[in-house]
TrEMBL record:
Coiled coil location: 93-198
Organism, scientific name: Anoxybacillus gonensis
Name listed for the protein in its UniProt record: t-SNARE coiled-coil homology domain-containing protein
Recorded superkingdom: Bacteria
Keyword annotations: Coiled coil
Length: 199
């Protein structure tokens, strides 16, 4: 009986020793698990911090996209203005095309007028040739008339000189007559004064 008890006591001692060893291993394992959980918690804290940074980054990205949307809105507005300007330009080009068409019509009319003017100039040149010939004929006649006038001038100068000489002679003769009349008039005035004084 005592041997059995000793055997049981030895087994209990062995079990207790194994239990203590197992308890120590369990404690070490739990310590390792706690350390691992602490590392996991730290890792999760880092992950949370990283997610916070990512959220902040996404917030910045959202703000950037909002700015981009605003810029696109401005770009759309600018494109709308550009489209309006192109519409105005197309309208202006249509007006320019119309004006070019009018100018072409006017140029055609001017070309026709120039053609008619060239024909008239050709006729005028022919007429100018005729006029030139007639002027040459007139110049010849004027030369003849000039010679005749020169002869007449010489002849008239002689006639005028003779006529002036006759006029000067008559003036001299009339001058003597006027002098005699003045003397007679003076005598008559003197006689009238004497008669007035006697009266």
């Amino acid at each position: 009986m005592e041997a059995i008890l000793r055997e049981i006591l030895g087994k209990l001692t062995s079990i207790e020793s194994h239990f203590l060893q197992f308890q120590q291993e369990v404690r070490e394992r739990f310590a390792q698990i706690d350390e691992r959980f602490q590392q996991i918690d730290e890792r999760f804290a880092q992950i949370d911090e990283r997610f916070a940074q990512i959220d902040e980054r996404f917030k910045q990205i959202d703000e950037r996209f909002a700015q981009i949307d605003e810029r696109f809105k401005q770009v759309d507005e600018r494109f709308k203005q550009v489209d309006e300007r192109f519409a105005q330009i197309d309208k202006r080009f249509a007006q320019i095309d119309e004006r070019f068409a009018n100018m072409e019509s006017r140029l055609d009319a001017l070309e026709q007028e120039m053609k008619e003017t060239n024909e008239r100039i050709s006729r005028l040149e022919e007429e100018m040739c005729d006029v030139k010939k007639r002027l040459e004929h007139v110049e010849t006649q004027l030369s003849d008339v000039k010679e005749t006038v020169q002869r007449l001038e010489i002849q008239l100068a002689d006639d005028v000189r003779t006529l002036l000489q006759n006029i000067y002679k008559k003036i001299d003769e009339k001058g003597f007559e006027i002098y005699a009349l003045n003397k007679r008039l003076l005598r008559v005035e003197a006689s009238i004064e004497q008669l007035q004084s006697q009266v």
